[in-house]
Amino acid sequence: MGIHDLPSSSTAPAFLRLSLFAFFLTMFLTVEHALAATTRHYKFDIKLQKVTRLCHTKSMVTVNGQFPGPRIVAREGDRVVIKVVNHVKNNISIHWHGIRQLQTGWADGPGYVTQCPIQTGQSYVYNFTIVGQRGTLFWHAHVSWLRSTVYGPIVILPKLGVPYPFTKPHKEVPIIFGEWWNADPEAVIAQALQTGGGPNASDAYTINGFPGPLYNCSAKDTFKLKVKPGKTYLLRLINAALNDELFFSIANHTLQVVEADAVYVKPFATDILLIAPGQTTNVLLRTKPKFPNATFFMTARPYVTGLATFDNSTLAGILEYQLPQSHSTLSMKKLPLFKPLLPALNDTSSATKFTTNLRSLASAQFPANVPQKIDKRFFFTIGLGTTPCDKNNNQTCQGPNGTMFAASVNNISFVTPNTALLQAHYFGKSHEVYTPDFPTSPIHAFNYTGTPPNNTMVSNGTKLVVLPYNTSVELVMQDTSILGAESHPLHLHGFNFFVVGQGFGNFDPNNDPKNFNLVDPVERNTVGVPSGGWVAIRFLADNPGVWFMHCHLEIHTSWGLKMAWVVLDGKLPNQKLLPPPADLPKC
Ligand SMILES: *[C@@H]1O[C@H](CO)[C@@H](O)[C@H](O)[C@H]1NC(C)=O
Ligand SMILES: *[C@@H]1O[C@H](CO)[C@@H](O)[C@H](O)[C@H]1NC(C)=O
Ligand SMILES: *[C@@H]1O[C@H](CO)[C@@H](O)[C@H](O)[C@H]1NC(C)=O
Ligand SMILES: *[C@@H]1O[C@H](CO)[C@@H](O)[C@H](O)[C@H]1NC(C)=O
Ligand SMILES: *[C@@H]1O[C@H](CO)[C@@H](O)[C@H](O)[C@H]1NC(C)=O
Ligand SMILES: *[C@@H]1O[C@H](CO)[C@@H](O)[C@H](O)[C@H]1NC(C)=O
Ligand SMILES: *[C@@H]1O[C@H](CO)[C@@H](O)[C@H](O)[C@H]1NC(C)=O
Ligand SMILES: *[C@@H]1O[C@H](CO)[C@@H](O)[C@H](O)[C@H]1NC(C)=O
Ligand SMILES: *[C@@H]1O[C@H](CO)[C@@H](O)[C@H](O)[C@H]1NC(C)=O
Ligand SMILES: *[C@@H]1O[C@H](CO)[C@@H](O)[C@H](O)[C@H]1NC(C)=O
Ligand SMILES: *[C@@H]1O[C@H](CO)[C@@H](O)[C@H](O)[C@H]1NC(C)=O
Ligand SMILES: *[C@@H]1O[C@H](CO)[C@@H](O)[C@H](O)[C@H]1NC(C)=O
Ligand SMILES: [Cu+2]
């Protein structure tokens, strides 16, 4: 029954939880209007839990002691209310990654952006409605590197009675990729910020929390996907890893991509998937018609373009067909095991082939509302850089040439304030916290993907862009070759955007826009800025609030590759940010 186990809910009738769910779904099609959206309640207790992987046991921060964390299941249109209680010494907040949060910016979650963190012994109720989204998203901690262990799936089912625009799956299975350090990830990032060098690479990648048999001391920690022949499975793939985009493949099986970041796409078949941190992708797995007398590895390993040292290991799970009765004496262990062939770690052409295949479904029922007329254009450089090393502050200067690594947008490395930006904005105290002068284009133009400038030092500040309500925005993000070109998965909070164009080299404002796809571009919340290239996105700023935008490679966020957009209230009541909840944490 899997995913159709809906959680306890204040108004959902008990029958929703029965396995005859599908039957009732059909039966109640005609009275759909009578079954209004419901409220789903969850409680997240943030607490320590001992977990062992690769023969290393550590006490880590979790939700309800679970790793990965519990799944949130709701329908499009439902309200979700999650009470988060912090029982650990770390400050924490939770981000509902990809949820639009229309008018409810207070529930978005990034620490010091929309809220102060929830401190030890305190709690906060996240309260939001899921509007116009269906598919897979995920939730994760949004303070420091706590998301390495604090994450879980968000499953958004279509409204009751609305079918999927693809084969109805026999079963649905969330598959969440993560990254495991034997050490405490908080110590890893603290050390990196003190030395100024790159952080220690992770020790393993995980699939639903398990590294799988390709690692030492890990065979028993293997995720198995048990399937029946001749069925269609919906795999809800989520990349919750910190610092690595991943290639994924299942031996001898082709996958049909149907959805990305909770938006339907035009279905296409592929053997290889690319999924960046912050991205989600739904695929259909059609199992072989008969018991294949074999088992199959599903594996993932990184797509890496930067110069830094990285975890080059491979996670594996097993796709296992249920034995037919006639084979009951056969042992699974004796069956041949097939392995998929993954692209090389630096295979940019495989990566590009996958991403350029993604197109919005753009049907009458699920249109692609691409902004056609643009009010404001922005051009942001995205890349690495350096800052001076301060030995008096215990920094040990192990970054490039005795400096400290930094990262920036338009050469500004974002300085996180010690109070929340959204509160400063809402209560008219912004002048004390940030300036509204984030540059619309680089202050100094250079050959962004050519020979890098000699001076790699970045500037810093807490600068934001302020947009009137309903501004239609076009943003070109240009990778730079400073300290190495690299693919950066940029994530925008509060909006989906359309990926209207991408290319390699420097963006050409005269010729490239002619090739923009304004008909059926993919709509999502996280997009990879190609290594040594650019990407153009469009979105309508129809959600008042303060919205974080950052690289979803966590180390780049730590180094300052982040900024925020302020979207002002509109005139109508439903165009205004709601007042803050009474329990909003204080700094
Ligand atoms: C959630 O928000 C709605 C709308 O503002 C409100 O009616 C409801 O009381 C809130 N629920 C909780 C538990 O705070
Ligand atoms: C990072 O790796 C170095 C070299 O292996 C090791 O000495 C150091 O303790 C590690 N740091 C953390 C925080 O685990
Ligand atoms: C799996 O693929 C390999 C390589 O293409 C092929 O040799 C093998 O016969 C396939 N096995 C099954 C059970 O499909
Ligand atoms: C991974 O990196 C290690 C250390 O740099 C190297 O020895 C090993 O060959 C690499 N493995 C792969 C699969 O690239
Ligand atoms: C299945 O494969 C095993 C191992 O290769 C072999 O021993 C067995 O005879 C096969 N059974 C069938 C029904 O093909
Ligand atoms: C990818 O890596 C291989 C082996 O490390 C190297 O030979 C090749 O030149 C690299 N390709 C690109 C496009 O960087
Ligand atoms: C630097 O490190 C030393 C030893 O760990 C510590 O005693 C001192 O307080 C630190 N200084 C600063 C400015 O953090
Ligand atoms: C580091 O210094 C060397 C020698 O001065 C220079 O060639 C190189 O470009 C510098 N690298 C960076 C990243 O600044
Ligand atoms: C930028 O650098 C690239 C790579 O070195 C070079 O091919 C290109 O001609 C340069 N463009 C300009 C405008 O100088
Ligand atoms: C960068 O440094 C090199 C070598 O020191 C020098 O020849 C060159 O003129 C410098 N370029 C600029 C733009 O300063
Ligand atoms: C920001 O830049 C100023 C001036 O260069 C410098 O003194 C300060 O340390 C920097 N702050 C951060 C957080 O990097
Ligand atoms: C937790 O957050 C509060 C409020 O911003 C801050 O004062 C405190 O230093 C933080 N504690 C830790 C351990 O980071
Ligand atoms: Cu990045």
From TrEMBL:
Residues 47-159, 172-322, 442-569 form the Plastocyanin-like domain. CDD domains: CuRO_1_LCC_plant, CuRO_2_LCC_plant, CuRO_3_LCC_plant. GO terms for biological process: lignin catabolic process. It catalyses: 4 hydroquinone + O2 = 4 benzosemiquinone + 2 H2O. Its main location: secreted. GO terms for molecular function: copper ion binding; hydroquinone:oxygen oxidoreductase activity. It holds the Pfam family Cu-oxidase_2. The keyword Cell membrane does not apply. SUPFAM superfamilies: Cupredoxins (SSF49503). Coiled coil: none annotated. It is found in: Secreted, Extracellular space, Apoplast. It is an enzyme of class 1 (oxidoreductase). Its cofactor is Cu cation. Lignin degradation and detoxification of lignin-derived products. This is Laccase. It comes from Rhamnella rubrinervis.
